Amino acid sequence: MSPTKSVILVTGGTGLVGKAIEWVIHNESDKKYGKREGEEWIFLSSKEGDLTDPAQTKAIFEKYKPTHVIHLAAKVGGLFGNMAANLDYFRDNLLINDHILHNSKEFGVKKVVSCLSTCIFPDKTTYPIDETMVHNGPPHDSNYGYSHSKRMVDVMNRAYHDQFGCNFTSVIPTNVFGPHDNFHLVNSHVIPGLIHKCYLAQQNGTPFVMAGTGRPLRQFIYSRDLAKLFIWTLREYQEITPLILSVPEEEEVSIKQVGDSIVKAMGFTGDYSFDTTKADGQYKKTASNKKLMALNPDFKFTPFDVALTETVQWFKENVDHIRK
Ligand code: NDP
């Protein structure tokens, strides 16, 4: 990015990832990731405009005149929400992404980094997954609407570059967790849902029971680590093709390790067990972070237990007024 004034617009600025970027911008002293002189950061919420609406999206670009965009806003939901409304997830996200990229081109935005997700990869694949495999086969059936809309961002990025020379790219994070997550007991991702469940077990003196065997493996990235990598991508990543943002393959953790860490961080001393009559999800979905580490070899991920303890602490301090 140039040393002259930059206006960086973060769509979805009130969500899990947006709040983490805001935190890093205000708290990180290392200028590789923290705020630099001449930068103005704008964190958007949906209250400022519905990005599925073309006029409201254009008005946001007219108001802020961004030079750079980190595009996070999306209709995001759990398994059942997606299964019940694949068309809504497809259309809303297609509209949001089209409006953001179209206006970015019209207003001469120098760079856009959009957010994809590892769930967009083909359902039937070899492991580890890497960036070249995005379009290799159909995504999982449960959320094909969401997945296809996200895949189209990569198609649009390529076409905007080929036709107009735009510098629009994307990143692919693995499972994210951290402060400001959605801690709903059902409609949430695994870590925030389990934190809430363990908290209630502690409050009510009831057992903490995890569904399944606890054996499946996942790569979790702390939202504040992801935030640093988003900022680094905006400043340094030079390709149009996507970049996976993930911890290394060897830092995959089992769901049992997640449960153990939550119990420890919560200080839960009650009965803790696994209901093995409940189905496990896919055993593993390992993604490769080799491309990232070749480009940013010094990056240090926060140890899982430290990140989880910070998240549990944040949950306990904010439990009365958070998404749950
Ligand atoms: P959240 O659900 O926490 O936040 C979503 C954000 O999008 C909110 O700021 C919300 O605004 C905004 N938003 C949603 N719909 C609209 C709309 N129609 N107009 C304007 N703003 C809208 O999401 P995350 O932070 O978890 O996700 C950010 C990105 O990361 C998404 O693109 C998601 O697909 C991707 N991702 C997330 C992963 C995860 O594990 N969480 C994993 C991989 C990718 P408001 O708060 O005002 O409603």
Automatic annotation (TrEMBL):
<dbReference type="InterPro" id="IPR036291">
    <property type="entry name" value="NAD(P)-bd_dom_sf"/>
</dbReference>
<dbReference type="InterPro" id="IPR001509">
    <property type="entry name" value="Epimerase_deHydtase"/>
</dbReference>
<dbReference type="GO" id="GO:0050577">
    <property type="term" value="F:GDP-L-fucose synthase activity"/>
</dbReference>
<protein>
    <recommendedName>
        <fullName>GDP-L-fucose synthase</fullName>
        <ecNumber>1.1.1.271</ecNumber>
    </recommendedName>
</protein>
<comment type="similarity">
    <text>Belongs to the NAD(P)-dependent epimerase/dehydratase family. Fucose synthase subfamily.</text>
</comment>
<keyword id="KW-0521">NADP</keyword>
<dbReference type="InterPro" id="IPR028614">
    <property type="entry name" value="GDP_fucose/colitose_synth"/>
</dbReference>
<dbReference type="GO" id="GO:0016853">
    <property type="term" value="F:isomerase activity"/>
</dbReference>
<dbReference type="Pfam" id="PF01370">
    <property type="entry name" value="Epimerase"/>
</dbReference>
<comment type="pathway">
    <text>Nucleotide-sugar biosynthesis; GDP-L-fucose biosynthesis via de novo pathway; GDP-L-fucose from GDP-alpha-D-mannose: step 2/2.</text>
</comment>
<feature type="domain" description="NAD-dependent epimerase/dehydratase">
    <location>
        <begin position="8"/>
        <end position="240"/>
    </location>
</feature>
<keyword id="KW-0413">Isomerase</keyword>
<keyword id="KW-0560">Oxidoreductase</keyword>
